[in-house]
Amino acid sequence: MRAVCWNGKRDIRTETVPDPRIINPRDAIIQTELTAICGSDLHLYNGNIPTMRAGDILGHEFLGSVVEIGSAVKNLHVGDRVIVPFPIACGNCFHCAREEYSFCDNSNPNAWMTETIYGQSPAGLFGYSHMLGGYAGGQAEYARVPYADVGPVKIPSNLSAEQTLFLTDILPTGYQAAENCAIQRGDAVAVWGCGPVGQFAIQSALLLGAEHVIAIDRVPERLEMARSQSQAIALNYETVDVAEELREITGGRGPDACIDAVGMAIHCCRKGGTVSIPGVYGGFVDKFPMGAAFAKGLTLKMGQSHVQKYVSPLLARIEAGEIDPSFVITHRMSLEEAPHAYEIFNNKEEQCIKVVLKP
Fold it and tell me: Is 68 exposed, middle or buried (0-12, 13-18, 19+ CB in 10 A)?
């Protein structure tokens, strides 16, 4: 089969590799219908995540049709169209029982690697280094899905692949980021970073009752998307004093909640507010303003999305017409064009906000 492979820093190639096969009775093989490049994939592209190996297959946002199932998988049938959540979860451990799927204790066979860096290991992830399991990703014609009796969710026939693809990661990630803010009706929420996750955090904040959402970025097309798709107040941090503008918008108090951008968010958030961090931070953050966070009594909430928890309720919102996630797609390309797609996404060229790839 053809697959998008990592071969070193900024060296992405579409190569011919062996087809995946059933290894465990709880596995399924998915024929990929559509896949996407995530902003966190750029950490791999730029060589910022350790334990990558040449030839690793990338991608953790994908959906497709079931072509083979293991003997223990009873909830799926060959021919089912499914979305596949990016955290791999066993469904049985302490954390899975609490719907904390991205903390699964059993899905990372290389947990010792991650424990060395972080103290404890999160769940295994598709296509995201050997310290997170070494699993082949979904930017390929086929993918093996472990614990297929827990993760994949069937796609209703009335919804398209583009409408449902982002249930695999970035829509639940943006929604969880907004949910973490404990938004009350009428709140003002500031979102730093208007890439795809930021766009979904903006829409999710509005779905959860925010009155004002302020979108902060420097890329014109991202700010325009936030304005046109979500009616957000857009601020370009290169041309305005963001802290001053936020005080003006909120009557001098500051936003009730801030999403991402740790340093500025902590200084701008109102006293007693919440800072939600969905962004992938790979290591240590220097000059973190802990004193300000303490003095203002802020609540900090962060972490990988527990995607499986959110798929069904968000799928219902899509079916009800409350949100159509496909609005973030700016580029549709083939799997063979993946090297170019990574380049323009990384360099913010050609007004690229989100790329989907069709095998």
Answer: middle
- Predicted local confidence at residue 291, as pLDDT: 85
Q: Please report which confidence band the pLDDT of residue 283 belongs to, taking 50, 70 and 90 as the band edges.
A: low
Q: How far is CA 110 from the centre of its chain?
A: 22
Name the residue among 36, 49, 61 with its Cα closest to residue 8: 49
Residue 285 sits at the vertex; the CA angle it makes with 120 and 193, to the nearest 5 degrees, is 105
Sequence-distant (6+) residues with CB within 8 A of 26 are 70, 72, 73, 146, 147, 148, 149
Q: List C-alpha distances in Å: 194 to 127, 234, 353.
A: 24, 10, 9
Would you say residue 290 has pLDDT above 90?
no
Mean pLDDT over 195-220 rounds to: 96
pLDDT for 262 beyond 60: no
Could you say which DSSP state residue 126 is in? B
What does residue 295 show for φ and ψ, rounded to 5 degrees?
Answer: -60, -35
Give the 3-state secondary structure of residue 144: strand
**Are 339 and 353 spatial neighbours (Cβ–Cβ below 8 Å)?**
no
Q: How far apart are CA 238 and CA 231, in angstroms?
A: 21
| CA atoms of 22 and 190, how far apart (whole Å) | 45
Q: Look up tokens 């903006």; give the residue.
A: 202
81: which DSSP letter? E
- Only one residue has tokens 């340093």, namely 263
CA distance 141 to 335: 9
- Over residues 114-133, the pLDDT tens digits come to 999 888 999 999 999 999 99
